[in-house]
Amino acid sequence: MNRATVSILSALAVLATSSLSSAATVTTVGADTATDANWRNPAVDKPFDADANNVYGTDGFVVFEYTRANFDWSARNVANDLRWLPSYVTSISDNFAYGYRNDPVYGQINDPNKPLPAPPKWNYPGTVASGNIWDFNTVTITRNGNTGPFQLTVFTCYDDSAKGPEQVWVHSSANPADAVRLDLNYATGKTNYVTFAIGAGTDDVTVRVYSGANHLTGLAFDGLTQRPYTGAYAAMVGKDTSTTANWRNPAVNKPNDADKAGCV
User: Within 10 Å of residue 207's Cβ, how many Cβ atoms?
Assistant: First the structure.
């Protein structure tokens, strides 16, 4: 094997290694203190929403402790989360120790279980994953292989301004020193958001939060391709309790099937 062949093979090995694992660039986009509960309401302007449909979480989202009972302060329970992950994320994990819900003083969010557009009557009491005091908590986002860029929005409905702001640090490399920071304000009866642009890559995206009492409500994922809201989002037609397993069986009547083909 001559020297030129060795050099080519060495270069190919480096390229192969870099394609297996690569850290994305992470940049700050901005802090949103105006949207409040209306993260799913396209009638409310979202100045930092890259896909321009005025909805946070078009690609996917996680709402921590979504089904937790009011005033239930107890161990963090991932089974309470409402999770709709985008295709470019395989899993999300965190090290928060507790969960809580406080209807009277925490901010609210549009209920993501309701169809868009989300009117105010569909607001849902805020819940939080709760963690450390003056120490970091971490959320790890595992990517689905080598994926393209996206926007990540982190939000909280926590109320005690004396314990904030909550520092939100995001990085994609193994080195926390590469993280960039935005701050989430805590305010009684209000939900606040910060948004980051995540570049293409394969490495996990790490969110680290730090405050006098760490509390996060959720994460929202949006693509960078503009797709303005046109009024064409799904609306509820009706509930079908009779089809059971026969969703693809045209011999079984589907009362809400618009094309009347007998298949959903």
Answer: 21
CA distance 98 to 243: 40
Q: What's the one-letter identity of residue 217?
A: T
| Alpha carbon distances (Å) from 256 to 110, 113, 115, 239, 240 | 26, 19, 16, 8, 7
The three-class DSSP label of residue 60 is strand
Q: Which tens digit of pLDDT belongs to each residue from 2-56? A: 443 333 334 333 333 334 557 889 999 999 999 999 999 999 999 999 899 999 9
Domain count along the chain = 2
Nearest by Cα to 96 from 80, 83, 112 = 80
What do you get for the CA distance between the two ends of the chain, in Å?
60
For the chain, counts of helices (H) and of strands (E): 1, 17
Residues 254 and 183 in one domain: no
Give the tens place of pLDDT for each residue, 196-207. Answer: 999 999 999 999
List the one residue out of 77, 76, 192, 75 whose CA is nearest residue 126: 192
Q: Which of 154, 152, 153 is nearest to 137 (CA)?
A: 154
CATH number at residue 157: 2.60.120
Burial of 259 (C-beta count, 10 Å sphere; 0-12/13-18/19+) = exposed
Give 246-261 as a DSSP string.
Answer: -TT-TTS--TT-TT-S
**Domain annotation covers residue 2:** no
Provide the pairing of β-strand 98-101 with 108-110: unpaired
Per-residue CA distances from 253 to 58, 239, 245 (Å): 32, 13, 12
Helix-, strand-, coil-residue percentages of the chain, each rounded to 5? 10, 30, 55
Sign of the C-alpha dihedral computed for residues 184, 111, 121 and 126 taken in this order: negative
